[in-house]
């Protein structure tokens, strides 16, 4: 496994790209409401990325081996959709829906990748709890990141919190290294055992993006070749940040003015998390 250690110049470009990705989510927040289509959300995000930020939407026409080119600029995964939901003018958000918006921008050749959950109006207690526990899972994973730690520490923390709260972890998709390439080594599993996997070193940049299901972990792929759903049609949630291993801990690269605050569950780790 070849994991690239980013140079100081690359890290600075990643900071910019990460912040811009998060600012797309800030921009789109007031538009995520009942009656809007996921296609319209995609159009608004595309125009903001291209015309305001001067960025390239990384998902548009992205085609890893075995896939057809992705047709839109963001991913919009609603309710039981786990990830890679394709925006569509016919998919209209309604009160009570939960939706993940996954944004990746390219700025000056480097990627900024992040996602957030949005709740449309009032939703069920279970849906709100799923979104909150998934957010805590992501941050507990982030809190494990420091030099000398291992990838398995991240996955173990996420799995323990998710399963301890009665939810399940999707295993087929994971976080990933990122930089000049959209997806690089390492693969960052959201389950595992402490002390296993590669050792983390300063200069590594990767995403932590747990997908947590309210029901069972099993998933299926829709005929569009991209959209992943829960096999039992239970709700699914996901949050994502892009992080840098620093000399003393971790720096979250995908924060902006509108980012939700850290959850209380990571308060004991605050000294090693920047900013």
Structural account:
The two termini are 29 Å apart. The chain is 25% helix and 24% strand. Strands 1, 2, 4 and 5 form a 4-stranded antiparallel sheet that branches. The protein contains 4 helices and 16 strands. It has a single domain, classed as Alpha-Beta Complex (Creatine Amidinohydrolase). A hairpin with a 4-residue loop joins strand 14 and strand 15. With 275 residues, the protein is of the alpha+beta class.
CATH overall fold name: Creatine Amidinohydrolase
Mean residue pLDDT: 97
Number of strands: 16
- Uncertain runs: none
Q: What is the CA-based Rg, rounded? A: 17 Å
CATH architecture: Alpha-Beta Complex
Q: Largest sheet at a glance?
A: 4 strands, antiparallel
What structural class is derived from the secondary structure elements?
alpha+beta
Q: What proportion of the residues form beta strands (DSSP E)?
A: 15-25%
CATH superfamily: Creatinase/methionine aminopeptidase superfamily
End-to-end span in angstroms? 29 Å
Our count of domains comes out at 1
Which helices and strands, and how do they pair?
Blueprint: H1 8-28, H2 38-52, E1 56-57, E2 75-78, E3 81-83, E4 98-107, E5 110-119, H3 125-143, H4 151-164, E6 168-169, E7 175-177, E8 184-188, E9 205-208, E10 211-213, E11 219-221, E12 228-230, E13 236-238, E14 241-245, E15 250-252, E16 273-274
Parallel strand pairs: 15-16
Antiparallel strand pairs: 1-4, 2-4, 3-12, 4-5, 6-10, 7-8, 9-14, 10-13, 11-12, 14-15
Helix pairs in contact: 1-2, 3-4
